[in-house]
Amino acid sequence: MWFEKHINRVPGVQGGEPVIVGTRTPVRTIAVLFHVTYPGDRAEVGCALPHLQPEQIDAALAYYDHNRDEIDGYIDEHHRAFESLLASR
Fold first, then answer.
1. What pLDDT is stored for residue 46 in this prediction?
2. What are the domain boundaries of the chain?
3. Buried b vs exposed e over 47-75: b needs ≥16 C-beta within 10 Å?
4. Global pTM exceeds 0.85
5. pLDDT per residue over 16-25, tens digit each?
6. How far is CA 83 from CA 14, 16, 26, 79, in A?
7. CATH architecture of the region 2-87
8. H or E segment at 7?
9. Is the separation of the CB atoms in 8 and 21 below 8 Å?
């Protein structure tokens, strides 16, 4: 797939989650920004992550579309960890 050249996994970076090549930005973050924080607004995602090119954002969103269960699992995992942290305070 065209988007795979923009996505990789690096041991020790974001727990091995898929990230944008050359960055520590996980696909998970881009998916949440696009679908939750700024629903459907690629320009706002780009403003929030100015180190990324539009093609990288598009690649992350395409990766998410093709691997939704995997990325949703990472989103849920991070949400649970955050909730646990808040509960421990």
1. 98
2. 2-87
3. ebbeebeeebbbbbbbbbeebeeebeebb
4. yes
5. 999 999 999 9
6. 19, 22, 20, 6
7. Orthogonal Bundle (1.10)
8. strand 7-8
9. yes
- Backbone conformation region of residue 73, classed left if phi is above 0, alpha if psi is from -120 to 50, else beta: alpha
pLDDT digits (tens, 9 = 90+) for 38-73: 999 999 999 999 999 999 999 999 999 999 999 999
Name beta bridge partners: 19.
Answer: 8, 26
Burial class of 43 by CB neighbour count within 10 A (0 to 12, 13 to 18, 19+): exposed
Residue type, position 41, single letter: D
Q: Helix H segments across 1-89?
A: 27-32, 42-48, 54-66, 68-87
Q: How far is CA 74 from the centre of its chain?
A: 9
